[in-house]
Amino acid sequence: MTKEIKKADEPKKLAAKKTTSIPKSETKQIGVSEARAKKIKHSYKVKDPENSLVLKLKDGDVVIEMFADAAPNHVARIKELVRSKFYDGLKFHRVIEGFMAQTGCPLGTGTGGSGQKIPAEFSNLPHKRGTVSMARAMHPHSADSQFFICFNNCEWLDGQYTIWGEVTSGMEYVDMITKGKGPNGQVQYPDEIITIRVVADL
User: Fold this and answer.
1) Torsion sign, CA atoms 101, 107, 111, 117
2) Where are the domains of the chain?
3) Are 191 and 58 in contact (CB under 8 A)?
């Protein structure tokens, strides 16, 4: 007599686990090793790390060397703002093809600033392709946190705006900043500064 073979039970399906996303601020961030940090810093090949910036844009890194001799007060204030991460996430609100890209307004409208005016430090330096200069209102001493990067030579600005730096690498990424089509270069969907850091701090 043969034993009746019972059909095996169907395998039970496990209920899907409910997952919740954890805010980025609460996740553990893996830091950069000291050796790696040194390698990154040296890769920028700047003359003076304390007076050089790395501006991260959507398309790549832009290196700006600052003119501490020509505009010491502006350079000191820019570094102060950079180190407080004031510029991170700010928009290039005014960008005019063939002219310049302007940023540094916390309101994203061109009407705001950090609340601290800087006396003008005009010089004989020319506004040329890659020049980084302060934006201002009509009054010569009204520069605050807003600045612009020239796409081309803009000699008509010479002696009227404080030049505090120059792009030494990554100008091709500045060229890729979204241009404005609105009044006076207003950008509808502006690019942002991802981060900006003093090279010595990397």
Assistant:
1) negative
2) 36-201
3) yes
pLDDT digits (tens, 9 = 90+) for 56-71: 999 999 999 999 999 9
Let me know if 103 is exposed, middle or buried by CB neighbors in 10 A (0-12, 13-18, 19+).
buried
pLDDT digits (tens, 9 = 90+) for 40-51: 666 788 999 999
> In the prediction, which pLDDT does 44 show?
82
As given in the structure block, the two tokens for residue 109 are 């409208």
- Spatial separation of the C-alpha atoms in residues 172 and 163, rounded to whole Å: 20
Domain covering 36-201 in this structure, CATH number: 2.40.100.10
- With a CB cutoff of 8 Å and minimum separation 6, the contacts of 198 are 49, 50, 52, 53, 79, 82, 83
CB burial readout 41-51, b (16+ within 10 A) else e = beebebeeeeb
Which tokens sit at 8?
A: 């095996």
Contacts of 171 (CB under 8 A, 6+ apart): 62, 129, 130
* Six-digit token string for 116: 């601290």
Return d(Cα 74, Cα 145) in angstroms, integer: 9
Q: Count Cβ atoms below 10 Å from residue 75 Cβ, excluding itself.
A: 21
With contact defined as beta carbons under 8 Å apart, do 74 and 162 qualify? yes
